[in-house]
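User: quick one, sequence for these tokens?
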């Protein structure tokens, strides 16, 4: 390896500071949602420590609010976070062939969009301690922010809590609007998802909300992938 473990750890920690700060802000609003479904600060902290994913956690909290069975929560979390399996596969190809398996497991534990971005942009073979350094800022920022959001939700007046709750929806809107404007297929898929979710909620009342979400996610994403696959050329642009 071109860098020692200590050097890689320090570089990962340095590059991860902006990520950790961003996670703290976003997870604070996620904590408001966790508080609304009855989680304690410790439970929110633990949930974010073990599942460092905004969409996955939000879906989990939403299903908790609906009193969904554990199996539905587990399956839906797996579906929403499935992209991290692909990211982990890409990162594993950057490791030296003699990298121990346990390093691959530990690095795969906290593969997020942002950590994936700084990792794949790193030249040469990947030292797992670089990822560990980034995780040292990302995980505390995300989990502590969630816990503090729950605490704030218990202290602040209802009007302030309601305003902060809207911030999380704004975050998801900010995620889907740019790619929807850039790609008509993505925009159409989002619109179809809204329409089918509305129809399912009103006409498939015999199916639980968690199961409806799982089915719609798999069917819509699968149909988009089959009929409008991303070409290798476009993916590399």
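Assistant:
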């Amino acid at each position: 390896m071109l860098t020692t473990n200590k050097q890689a750890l320090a570089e990962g920690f340095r590059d991860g500071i902006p990520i950790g700060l961003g996670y703290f802000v976003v997870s604070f609003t996620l904590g408001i949602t966790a508080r609304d479904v009855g989680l304690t600060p410790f439970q929110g902290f633990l949930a974010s420590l073990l599942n460092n994913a905004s969409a996955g956690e939000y879906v989990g909290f939403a299903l908790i609010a609906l009193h969904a069975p554990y199996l539905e929560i587990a399956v839906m979390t797996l579906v929403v976070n499935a992209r991290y399996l692909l990211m982990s596969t890409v990162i594993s190809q950057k490791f030296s062939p003699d990298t121990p398996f346990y390093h691959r497991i530990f690095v795969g534990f906290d593969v997020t969009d942002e950590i994936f971005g700084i990792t794949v942009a790193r030249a040469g073979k990947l030292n797992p301690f670089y990822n560990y350094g980034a995780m040292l800022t990302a995980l505390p920022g995300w989990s502590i922010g969630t816990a503090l959001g729950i605490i704030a939700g218990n202290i602040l007046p209802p009007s302030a809590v309601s305003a902060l709750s809207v911030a999380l929806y704004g975050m998801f809107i900010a995620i889907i609007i740019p790619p929807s404007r850039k790609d008509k297929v993505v925009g159409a898929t989002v619109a179809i998802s809204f329409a089918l979710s509305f129809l399912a909620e009103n006409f498939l009342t015999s199916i639980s909300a968690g199961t409806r979400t799982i089915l719609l996610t798999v069917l819509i994403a699968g149909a988009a992938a089959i009929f409008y696959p991303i070409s290798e050329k476009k993916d590399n642009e």
